[in-house]
Amino acid sequence: MAANPYDLVRYPTFPQFQTHPDRLAAVGRLFGMNPAPVEACRVLEIGCGSGGNLIPMAYALPHSSFMGVDLAAEPVADGMSTIQDLGLENVVLHSRDLREVGPEAGQFDYIVAHGVYSWVHEEVREGLLAVCRACLAPEGIAYVSFNSFPGGHVRQMLREMMLHHVRNTEDAAERIRQAREFLGTLLESHHWPKAWGEMRDHEVKAMLKWNDGSLYHDELAPFNQRFYLHEFAAAAQRHQLQYLGEAEPHEMFDPSRGMDGLAGDVLERVEHLDFLKARRFHQALVCRAERSLNRSIAAQQMPGFLFSSCARREDDGKIAGLRGVRITAADEVSSAVALALGEVYPLPLTFNELVPYVGNEEALCEILFALAITGFADLHVYHFPCEERVSDRPRASRLARYQAARSPFVTTARHGAVELDEIGRRLVQLADGTRTQAEIAAALGAEMELDRVVSGLKWMASRALLEG
Predict the structure, then answer these.
(1) Residue 101 lies in a domain
(2) What stretch of H or E contains 53?
(3) CA gap 268, 233 in Å, rounded
(4) Each residue's pLDDT tens digit, 286-332
(5) What are the two backbone dihedrals, phi and then psi, of residue 138, each rounded to the nearest 5 degrees?
(6) CA torsion through residues 451, 456, 458, 459, sign
(7) Residue 226's closest CA among 313, 326, 331, 154?
């Protein structure tokens, strides 16, 4: 039996916030669903790898249960070792074919398949959707990401050229080396027309920054199929599932109002946005086909959510929020709301907490709706618990301390990844709740004075790395 390519070349797994039950539940609620509460739900991840996405969820949500499946045995074994080290009893990983998961596994409130659908044979793709249908709870939501057209055409072209270049090589490491060499040569070519060259340079430079696992499994893999959104939706429909929306809510809206004259349902509108944006990747959500949905999203729904944004005023007077979105607030009230979110970030604020900044609930609804559909702010249904102040004996999360001892990447309480330098890794490990700030500084020796330790701890708090 041939070795699994994911055993030969490891594919790093990280927390993906857009797969978190909070995000899936928020989109479901937008469309009139009643998703299971984040703090008490069942989650299945298909293609879990070593659990870099699933295990942090299980750590942060001890009253929810989690199951992961992946065909590659070695990453699963690594993940189970992590689970045992952390003493987690609400998560398990299995090495098995996803098509072996059936109704006997029970129903799940949330199913996640990130980076699977495009990279497997058609039979397995159909099997993935069959699992979603068989295992989704009545109010359940499944996340399925895939590479898409029309924006995927350029990378598809580069993939085909790389595959041709490495066609005579079977060794994984050599295929990766030759592919990188080819991309470098392509980047230096002066023969491409200028318009094509700009697209080539953008894509090639991005791929050259990838780690070996990403390059090997994403673009040198036997399968990497791109789809138009309507093709995916039709496949879901064959399995009695319906397209719910996007895991990134702002991807379903066009604040420029360029499609106001377009008739059609949400699927039609999102696909036309694909055309306008040349979208190349989808993070689609589906639910059971028989679940009726409310497709009339409106500002009046905002009181049912929490909101977060890293908003800050910049030198030119504009306010920068999430995803690089910058706004020129039309009035002081809108600015006050945006900046209030930034003052407590990464914690979210409830609707009622923001009312005093406006004084008028209807006006606040309009402001928050505008911030959400532009991507400036995130919608939540769950208040992520984290410590926002630095105590005399600060304590980083046990998960972050465990990860810092093994990797530069640690997971925040908001299910995001933060990269640390060597001193940062030591600081996280020393902040275990037993040492005062002065004792932490002393343990670090001459490398950090107390004021720098205090600054570092405040930075950790701002990144949701501390526990109470």
Answers:
(1) yes
(2) none
(3) 11
(4) 999 999 999 988 999 999 999 999 999 999 989 999 999 998 866 78
(5) -50, -35
(6) positive
(7) 154
The residue behind tokens 């009139």 is 32
Q: For position 385, what pLDDT does the model report?
A: 85
Asked whether the predicted pLDDT for residue 194 surpasses 80, the reply is yes
**Would you list the DSSP string of 362-397?**
HHHHHHHHHHHHTTSSEEESS------S--SS-BB-
> Among 246, 268, 288, where does a domain finish?
288
pLDDT grade, residue 401 (50/70/90)? very high
Tell me the C-alpha distance between 456 and 421, whole Å: 12
> How far apart (Å, rounded) are the C-alpha atoms in residues 466 and 263?
48
Alpha carbon distance 30, 298 (integer Å):
9
Q: Report how far residue 158's alpha carbon sits from residue 164's, in angstroms, rounded to the nearest whole number.
A: 10
Contact 227, 234 (CB under 8 A): no
Does some domain include residue 385?
Answer: no
Written as six digits, the tokens of 389 are 């102040």
Q: Are 447 and 430 contained in the same domain?
A: yes
Domain of 209? Answer: 153-218
What does the DSSP assignment read for 132-152?
A: HHHHEEEEEEEEEEEEBTTTT
Q: DSSP state, 20?
A: S
Could you read off the pLDDT of 255-272 as tens digits, one per residue?
777 666 665 688 998 999
pLDDT by residue (tens digit) across 196-212? Answer: 899 999 999 999 999 99
pLDDT at position 245, please? 97
Distance CA 125, CA 299 (A): 36
In a domain, 94, yes or no: yes
**Of 183, 218, 253, which closes a domain?**
218
Closest CA to 136 of 23, 286, 295, 294: 286
Q: Within a domain: residue 390?
A: no
Q: Which two tokens stand for residue 11?
A: 């594919």
CATH number for the domain including 60? 3.40.50.150
Tell whether the model's pLDDT for residue 379 goes beyond 60. Answer: yes
Angle in degrees, CA 300, 305, 309, rounded to 5: 110
pLDDT for residue 138 is more than 90? yes
59 in the same domain as 133: yes
Alpha-carbon distances, residue 50 vs 28, 210, 361, 428 (angstroms): 28, 19, 45, 22
138 shares its domain with 244 = yes
Nearest to 284 by CA among 166, 77, 145: 145
SS (HEC) of 224-276:
CCCECHHHHHHHHHHCCEEEEEECCHHHHCCCCCCCCCCCCCHHHHHHHHHHH
Q: Is the pTM of this model over 0.90?
A: yes
201 and 337, same domain (yes or no): no
